[in-house]
Amino acid sequence: MPHTETGPAASAERHYFEQLAQGCFTIPQCQACARHHFYPRVVCPHCGSDALRWTQPSGLGEVYSTTVVRSKAGDYTVCLVDLAEGPRLMSRVVDTPPESVRIGMPVRARIDTVDGGPLLVFVPRSGEQA
Questions:
Q1: End-to-end alpha-carbon separation of the chain, Å?
Q2: Residues near 126 by beta carbon (within 8 Å), at least 6 away in sequence
Q3: CA-to-CA dists, residue 20 to 12, 60, 74, 87, angstroms
Q4: Regarding beta strands 117-124 and 106-114, do their DSSP bridges make them parallel or antiparallel, or are they unpaired?
Q5: Percent of the chain scoring above 70 in pLDDT
Q6: How far apart are CA 61 and CA 64, in angstroms?
Q7: Could you tell me the residue range of the domain that residue 94 belongs to?
Q8: Is residue 130, in this structure, part of any structural domain at all?
C-alpha cells in the first residue's frame, strides 16, 4: 500500500488505490491536451493543466521491458507496460512463466489481491496486437 502523506498529490494517489480496491482501474486524463498519464498527479505532466478527470482505460497494453526477479518464494516478472492510451507503468505479468514474458507481448490489465490489498497486474493476450 502507498505511503501516507497529505495534500493534493496524496489525494490523487489515494483515489487511484481506492478505485483499485473497488475493482476499477482508472487513470487521469487531461481535459486541456486530452492525454492520459500515470502515476496519478494533480497537474498534467504533458501540458501543466490542472483540468483532469479520471477515466477507465481499455486495460490493453504491450510489454515495453521486462526482467525476472528470482526469489525463494518464487520467481516473478517486473515489467514496464505501455498502455494503449499512452502511459507507461510498472507492474507484473502473471499467469505465464516469467521466462515466457517478452518485449512486445500484448497484455491485458487485471486487478488481483496481494497481501490483502489490490494490485494491478497484466496477463498475456494470445494472438492479439496491442
A1: 29
A2: none
A3: 13, 16, 25, 17
A4: antiparallel
A5: 90
A6: 9
A7: 60-124
A8: no
The answer, yes or no, to whether residue 1 has pLDDT greater than 90, is: no
Cis peptide before 39 (omega within 30 of 0): yes
What domain count does the chain have?
A: 2
Q: Distances from the Cα of 91 to the Cαs of 4, 18, 79, 121, 122, in angstroms?
A: 21, 18, 5, 6, 7
Cα–Cα separations (whole angstroms), residue 6 to 13, 18, 50, 107, 108: 10, 15, 18, 34, 32
pTM for the whole thing? 0.86
Q: What is the DSSP letter of 32?
A: T
Q: What distance in Å separates the CA atoms of residue 69 and residue 98, rounded to the nearest whole number? A: 9
Question: Would you say residue 1 lies in a domain?
Answer: no
pLDDT tens digits for range 2-46: 444 455 667 889 999 999 999 999 999 999 999 999 999 989 999
